[in-house]
Design a protein that fits this description.
Elements lengths: L3 E3 L8 E3 L15 H14 L2 E5 L7 H10 L1 E5 L3 E6 L8 E3 L11 H8 L6 E5 L17 E4 L7 E5 L7 E2 L3 H13 L5 E2 L3 H4 L5 H7 L10
Helix pairs in contact: 1-3, 1-4, 3-4
Length: 220
Amino acid sequence: MGARIAGAGTIDHPTSTVVDALGAARHAVMPDRIETGTYAFAVAMTGGDVFLEGASPAILERPLEVLADIGAEITAGNRGIRIKRNGQGLAPVDVTTEPFPGFPHRSAGAADGAGLNADGSSHIRETNLRKPVHARPGAGAAWCRYSPRRSGRDRSWRAAPEGSGSDGRPDLRASVSLIIAGLAAEGETVVNRVYHLDRGFERIEQKLGACGAAIERLSS
């Protein structure tokens, strides 16, 4: 487009030079790895078989490794990624969030939700947030126990299976965790304050509903 940018990918703060005008360009937006990973974990937890059309395995290497570790069958190709449960129960999730290409911290909620349906306790170690969003009052704290691993920003928490519905008021990441957990829980799960959720997941109820989930958006 004519922009003059130096240092991209090599220094912390790339520099740019003002130009008189930018020209036209054609660009294909890459798939969102957070949204893709969220649906992949939802499929694994519920025992489904879903083809995520257009998904890119190149940007999901670590999440796909974790999915395979807990018991999902992964088939990746140029057209997308197929996620299928292997017919057995899920193994516990054990993962540490890291910068790309590691496991994204914004996918910790999805992994946590899947861990609630695993055979045993799951351990998700968060290295980005000062405390897990799940542990805040009224945001699913009943099923997510938070305990600092050590001082500083390096925190960890554990989630154990409960298997019942809930009523929470979470933010974006915790909203996804509660939705994924609710897909397999007995009873009705209500997730409030979904304006947080809508910032990261467009029409999530329609997409999950198209795959067979009993989910609907309630009028306020």
